[in-house]
Each structure stands twice: as C-alpha cells, then as structure tokens.
Design a protein that fits this description.
alpha+beta, Heat Shock Protein 90, Ribosomal Protein S5, domain 2, Rossmann fold, 4 domains, 9-stranded mixed sheet, 5-stranded mixed sheet, 20 helices, binds adenosine-5'-diphosphate, binds magnesium ion
C-alpha cells in the first residue's frame, strides 16, 4: 500500500477532540491503556498460536518494552504480540467498533468530565495517547506474515491519519508517542516505572525497561544496556491472598471495570475438588449505565491456566448477577474452549454454581452484618442493584431462598430496607400471611383504599413498585412458611386478626346489603364480574379487587403499556357498607333515576383510586355533573 491519507470516522474525531481538549486529570493513564493494548495483543497471539505454533516465529517469549528518548521527546510502548496488518490498522485505529461512544461522551460532559481514567471502559483507550502526544506513530507487523507486509500508521490526532506499507522484521507493534510541549515530565525512567507499578503490576507478562545505574562522575542515573522486568508479572489472582494488599485488589478492580469508585466487596478463592479454579470476584458500588440491558456483556473474564480466553463469558454467571466483575481461571477446561462448549460443560456449570454462591455470601455478609455501616453499604447496593437481584428469584430456583432473604422493600412502616424477616418478626399475633400491594408508585401504593383496614388494625403491608415485582411474586409464594398475599386479590381474609364479634357483625351487614348488591350487579354487569360487601374499607366507599387466580390490574396495566394485550379479567367491586354513599344508595327507591349514575360513578372512582384509567372519562364527567345539578 502506498502512502494514503484517510479521514477518521466522525465518532473518532469527536472523541479525539474531547481527549485533547477536556481531559486534564490522570493524564498518566495513557500508559496503562497502551500497556493494556500490548498485553491484549500478546494474549491474542497466545490464543491464536494454540492452533498454529508457527505464529511465535523465533520469539516465543511474549513481553512488553517501555522506553523513551529524551532528545526526540518520544515514549515507545513495544510488544511482540499479534500485530496488525495495514487493513487492521485502518479499521482498529481509525474507527470505533464498539457501541458506547455516545455514553462515553455523555460521561465526559458530566461532573467527571476532566478525568481521563474512564476512557478505557469505552473501547477507545488507544486515543488516550493524544492526551500527552501531538503525534502518534504506530509501526506493526502481524504474526505469521512476511516482513514486507508491515504497516506504518501516523496521525496528529486532528482529522486524518496516514498509512503505508513498510518493511518490518519484528513481529508485533511499536506505539511511539511524540510528546506535546509541556509533557516532558514523562521523559523519566523513575516516572514511567512508577506509573507501570501503579497501574500495570498485575499484567501477567513481563514489562521491561532499561536498567539504570548511578554514575558518580555525572552524579546522575544513566542507562545501561540491560533490560529489567519492572512489574510483578504474575497475574494478581494467581498470587496467594496473603501476599496481595487491599490496595492492590482495589487497583486491579479499577482496571478491570474502569469504575472510579472502589468496589463494595470482593472475594478471592482457589477452589479445589472435582473441578479446580481460581475466582476473584467484585461487587461494584454503583450501577453501570447499561445495567438494565439483559443482553449486556457479563463482567467476568475467563482464563484457562492463566491464558486469557474470553472477555464476557456469560456462561460463568447467571444473568441476574451480570453486574459482578472479575476473573475466573480454570485449571481443567481445554484451552480451545468455545462459547458453545462453555454452555454445555459440566465444569462450567460447577464453576457457575460455586461463583454464584460466593457472590451471594458476599452480599449476605454485608446485609446481615452487625456493623450498621456495613448494612448501610448493603442498602446502597440494594438501591442500585436490587431490581436486578429480584430477577434471580424467578431465575435461580436453587438459590431462591437465599435471594428472598436479601430482598428489601418499602412498607407502610418504613420507606425502605424492610426484609421479609423483619416483616415476619413484626407480624401481629394471629397474622398468618405477609401482605403486599403492587402499584406504579409509592404514593399510589400508600393511598390505595385496599390498605384502609390494614392501617386501622396496624398491620404492616409491603409496598411493591418496581416493574419486576409482579413477575418476581409469581415465583415467590411464601417465606419461611408464611404465604405472600396481595391485599388487592380475593376477599380479605384477616383470619384470626378479626374477632368473632366483628365477623358476626360483618355477616349481618352483608345480609342487610343484599338488595343493594343485587341492584349494583345488574347495573354494572358489563364491568364487574361480581359485587360484594367488604370489611377491608374504612374511609372509601368502594374498591376494585381481582379474583385470586386472576392477573392483578396493576400487571394488566403494565402489559398494556408494553403493547401486549392482556386477557381482560373482569374485576370485582367491593363496597363499604358503613360508607354514607353506599348507605344512601341502599336507601334509594326502585324508581330513582340517579341510581344508575351513582353505580357507574362508584365503580369509576374505585378504578381511579387504585391508579387505573377510565375508558370513557367524558361519560364520567357528565354523570358527576348531572348529580351536581340535580
Ligand atoms: P480496546 O483495547 O478496548 O479494543 P483501544 O482503543 O485501546 O480499544 O484499541 C483499539 C484496537 O486497536 C484494539 O482493539 C486492537 O485491535 C488495536 N490495537 C491497539 N493496540 C494494539 C497493539 N499494541 N497490538 C495490536 N493491536 C492493537
Ligand atoms: Mg485498549
């Protein structure tokens, strides 16, 4: 290929503009990004060489070298990994393959905008070189191709880049940064070593720098012609726990996740037994922007005997734990394992089960901690990730009980943080079920007429307002032998909470109300499948309930909003015999023309009170107006 000048993809131009104009803090991360790319390139070579060892050519030892030239003001990151062909250089360094660019830019426009630290998360780490360089030159040759197939790529980071074919004997890639005026601080062996130590210690291949010695005459450090390894070059998770500090675990997490906040908890174990593996798993402190996306890549990387195999090994974690970040290194899986194979492997199944249990233990340790600060951490976790964890109740039957204990709710007694165990501990003498109500919002839930009798009797009711709650409840029937019961389904059965006198009285009133009930049934036969007297209301005249086996009206509404047609389950109208309106209707004579209007209004109001929508609001308004003027 002769020398060509090509234009960056529009997104790349935007990124470059931000990189060169907005990122002021943590400039030094450019080195982490370039070393991480070099290490990825070596991982890729190792992986491709599993099938064709000829790719190693005559240099089987994979390594990264970092060096600088103080006169020329350049820093070079060199690797002998997979390398790039000219086409690959154009594609990988001129366009952005991954989605998420827009999110990245949105982040940079937010409060953290000046922090360069976030850049690698979005698959644009290479461009961070332009934070400190006003020109980057890349020379590369792909493993296994002839030396006249090398490529030189070069750009000043504005609109264009140049590419040309060159001769290059060495396999792999040199990335040369021509530093901007004012960035000379990076032209120091000490500085570069300390950055490598800070960010890249865990990289499992050796990072080499020129060894220096003290020169008496010059009273200065001078370069020797020897190279030394400046990182530990042992993958962090392979080191014994006792030799890894908390700070190192935290730093490793940051690189893995690009999360600027410290993780909430982590666990590091070597598991022995039928299948052997090492796991290092982290629970983040805050939700990523795409947590809701169930198709999002998982956060667990798979290694086999220290060889990196794949990034988003979703088979290793259940979907509801997709927020967990970390590394699993298996001693038993074959190195050429594919995604399909992973799905079927018994070893993988065992690893997934073991890892799931570890994550749940981490969460339990926070949730049940004696220390209130730890429990607060759990609540912070719950606010961000609770909705996702709820998916697990339906998805992971083996752990459903443990998950149920980790659930936290709002209730009529506390705005948040109520566990099922807390609830059970506060149940009234004679109360047999755990009561809940589902609604679109906490306000709607709290003001629902269904709660009146519970409030009067001081019985706690859980208020469930997440979209996933209805689905979760279809899998969660009971907790420690107590059934979960909707206050809006079926008749109220307060069981022993109602005394005999109350029950008797209720029966008598219901009996007396029979003629009214029959008239209401006739008037509402198109809208309600039944009408009955209830004891559940105190202040409201009526409410809507559904029969035990029917879909709740809240769920039916959600399905409708989502564009799915819900089978029309006709609700039941329950009326409060003690309410003045009901009594007035009971007293209305056979010929009273207003009765029909009152019946429809009673029903419409009950519907409105629980957050439903009227099919024909205009008719409702007309009826009310007729009554107002009569
Ligand atoms: P990411 O590393 O997340 O893919 P980068 O912006 O850091 O994003 O790098 C973009 C791409 O450029 C890489 O995916 C890789 O294909 C290519 N690349 C960068 N550096 C190297 C290198 N040293 N050797 C081979 N390919 C590289
Ligand atoms: Mg990268």
């Amino acid at each position: 290929m002769d020398k060509q000048t090509l234009s960056f993809q529009a997104e790349v131009k935007q990124i470059l503009h931000l990189v060169t104009h907005s990122l002021y803090s943590n400039k030094e991360i450019f080195l982490r990004e370039l070393v991480s790319n070099a290490s990825d390139a070596c991982d890729k070579l190792r992986f491709e060489a599993l099938d064709s060892s000829a790719l190693y050519e005559d240099a089987p030892n994979l390594e990264v070298r970092v060096f600088f030239d103080a006169q020329a003001k350049t820093i070079t990151v060199r690797d002998n990994g997979i390398g790039m062909s000219a086409d690959e250089a154009v594609a990988h360094l001129g366009t952005i393959a991954k989605s998420g660019t827009r999110e990245f830019m949105a982040t940079l426009e937010g409060e953290q905008k000046k922090d360069a630290n976030l850049i690698g998360q979005f698959g644009v780490g290479f461009y961070s070189g332009f934070i400190v360089a006003d020109r980057i030159t890349v020379e590369s040759r792909r493993a296994g191709v002839a030396s006249d197939q090398g490529v030189r790529w070069s750009s000043d980071g504005s609109g264009d880049f140049e590419v040309e074919t060159i001769d290059r004997a060495a396999r792999g890639t040199d990335v040369v940064l021509h530093l901007r005026e004012g960035e000379e601080e990076f032209l120091s062996a000490w500085k570069l070593k300390s950055i490598v130590g800070k960010y890249s210690d865990h990289i499992s291949l050796p990072i080499l720098m020129v060894k220096q010695r003290w020169d008496e005459e010059k009273s200065a450090q001078v370069d020797t012609d020897e190279w030394e390894t400046v990182n530990k070059a042992a993958a962090l998770w392979t080191r014994p726990k006792s030799e890894v500090t908390d700070a190192q675990y935290q730093e490793f997490y940051k690189q893995l996740s690009y999360d600027s906040e410290a993780p909430l908890a982590y666990t590091h174990n070597r598991v022995e037994g039928r299948t052997e593996y090492t796991q290092l798993l982290y629970v983040p402190a805050k939700a990523p922007f795409d947590l809701w996306n169930r198709d999002k890549r998982g956060g667990v990387k798979l290694y086999v005997k220290r060889v990196f195999i794949m990034d988003d090994a979703e088979a290793l974690m259940p979907v509801y734990l997709r927020f967990v970040k970390g590394v699993i290194d298996s001693a038993d899986l074959p190195l050429n394992v594919s995604r399909e194979l992973l799905q079927e492997s018994r070893d993988v199944k065992a690893i997934r089960e073991g890892s799931t249990k570890r994550v749940l233990s981490m969460l339990e340790a926070l949730a049940d901690n004696e220390d209130a600060a730890e429990r607060d951490k759990y609540m912070k976790f719950w606010r961000d990730f609770g909705v996702v964890l709820k998916e697990g109740v339906g998805e992971d039957h083996a752990n459903a009980e443990r998950l149920a204990k980790l659930l936290r709710f709002a209730s009529t007694q506390a705005d948040e943080g109520v566990s099922l165990a807390d609830y059970a501990g506060r149940m009234k003498e004679g109360q047999e079920a755990i009561f809940y109500i589902t609604a679109d919002s906490a306000v709607a839930a709290k003001s629902s007429p269904q709660l009146e009798i519970f409030r009067k009797k001081g019985i706690e009711v859980l208020l469930l307002t997440d979209r996933v709650d209805e689905w979760m409840l279809s899998h969660l029937y009971e907790f420690e032998g107590k059934s979960l019961q909707s206050v809006a389904k079926g008749g109220v059965d307060l069981g022993k909470l109602q005394d005999e006198a109350e029950k008797k009285q209720a029966e008598e009133t219901a009996e007396a109300l029979k003629p009214l009930i029959e008239r209401l049934k006739a008037a509402l036969k198109e809208r309600a499948k039944d009408v009955r007297a209830t004891t559940r209301l105190v202040d409201s005249p009526a409410c809507i309930v559904v029969d035990e086996g029917d879909m709740s009206s809240h769920l039916a509404r959600m399905l409708k909003q989502a564009g799915q047609s819900a089978p029309p389950a006709m609700p039941v109208l329950e009326v409060n015999p003690d309410h003045a309106l009901v009594q007035r209707m009971a007293a209305a004579g056979e010929g009273d023309a207003r009765f029909d209007d009152l019946a429809q209004i009673l029903f419409d109001q009950a519907l409105l009170a629980e957050g439903g929508h009227l099919e024909d609001p205009a008719a409702y308004v007309q009826r009310v107006n007729r009554l107002l003027v009569s």
